[in-house]
């Protein structure tokens, strides 16, 4: 039992430090107060556990750095959702000791923390995520198909990379311009048109670079195609995991939907490239 309590104590101490760091990064005063209040509760939980174990435990520095780093990379909403899951897990751990009144009370507080974090994450605006989704979806669905078609039609990796690069850059600029005009025409918009355009364009370009890279590394066009499709699948999985976490949606449904669209269009484009190659008699 002491070992389990020490693990709980380490978790509570770590979460306390994470909340302190998150509160320091939070600009909104209401959200900052919520995080500080949860931090104070966690500190009190640590004291209760210390009275039981008789030991002082320090935070896990790797977990603290991980969460703080994720705030800077993936945003506060993602990390708050992760913390929400931690609180639910901690509440379940305390619930294993129903005979101890203080642990029952702490479990109740941990569940309340989870509810507060749910509200907190729901109130965080993710206004530019739609622009990122637009750039990513369009690049994955459209550009994956284009590269598949180029692969069979041209059958030369460097030529596919060159053609794809030109096509991708032009498409990224076009998508960015479209997003700028669309956002600017919205009434009561939350997004800044230029920032929205940059989000869409940069996301498209980064995706294009990832998908083109295999054609610069492999001498076989078909091998490059296989790696490109694997890279596309990885990007789809990572993004949809992030989206599912911050939006509390089903990862599996979104992942399979997007993967089916991307790979379906890639297959159709590959077939079209083959038909056009036969029809034109071109041999590159």
TrEMBL record:
Pfam families: VIT1 (PF01988). It comes from the Bacteria. The keyword Methyltransferase does not apply. GO terms for molecular function: manganese ion transmembrane transporter activity. GO terms for cellular component: endomembrane system. InterPro entries: Ccc1_fam (IPR008217), Ferritin-like_SF (IPR009078), Ferritin_CCC1_N (IPR039376). Keywords: Membrane, Transmembrane, Transmembrane helix. The chain crosses the membrane at residues 126-153, 159-182, 194-216, 222-243, 255-276. It is a multi-pass membrane protein. It is found in: Endomembrane system. GO terms for biological process: intracellular manganese ion homeostasis. This is Rubrerythrin family protein. It comes from Alistipes finegoldii. The lineage of its organism: Bacteria, Pseudomonadati, Bacteroidota, Bacteroidia, Bacteroidales.
């Amino acid at each position: 039992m002491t070992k389990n309590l020490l693990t709980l104590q380490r978790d509570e101490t770590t979460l306390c430090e994470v909340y302190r760091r998150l509160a320091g990064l939070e600009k909104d005063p209401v959200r900052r107060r919520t995080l500080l209040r949860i931090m104070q509760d966690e500190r009190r939980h640590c004291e209760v556990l210390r009275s039981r174990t008789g030991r002082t435990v320090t935070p896990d520095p790797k977990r603290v750095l991980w969460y703080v780093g994720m705030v800077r990379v993936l945003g506060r909403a993602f990390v708050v959702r992760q913390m929400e899951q931690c609180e639910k897990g901690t509440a379940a751990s305390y619930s294993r000791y129903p005979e101890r009144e203080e642990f029952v009370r702490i479990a109740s507080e941990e569940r309340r923390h989870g509810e507060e974090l749910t509200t907190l994450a729901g109130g965080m605006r993710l206004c530019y995520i739609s622009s990122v989704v637009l750039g990513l979806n369009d690049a994955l669905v459209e550009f994956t198909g284009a590269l598949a078609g180029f692969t069979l039609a041209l059958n030369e990796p460097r030529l596919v990379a060159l053609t794809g690069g030109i096509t991708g850059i032009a498409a990224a600029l076009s998508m960015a311009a479209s997003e700028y005009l669309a956002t600017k025409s919205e009434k009561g918009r939350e997004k800044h048109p230029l920032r929205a355009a940059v989000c869409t364009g940069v996301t498209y370009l980064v995706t294009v670079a990832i998908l083109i890279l295999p054609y610069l590394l492999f001498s076989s066009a078909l091998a490059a195609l296989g790696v490109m499709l694997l890279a596309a699948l990885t990007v789809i999985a990572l993004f949809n995991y992030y989206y599912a976490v911050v939006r509390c949606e089903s990862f599996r449904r979104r992942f399979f939907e997007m993967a089916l669209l991307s790979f379906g269009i890639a297959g159709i484009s590959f077939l079209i490239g083959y038909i056009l190659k036969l029809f034109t008699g071109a041999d590159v």
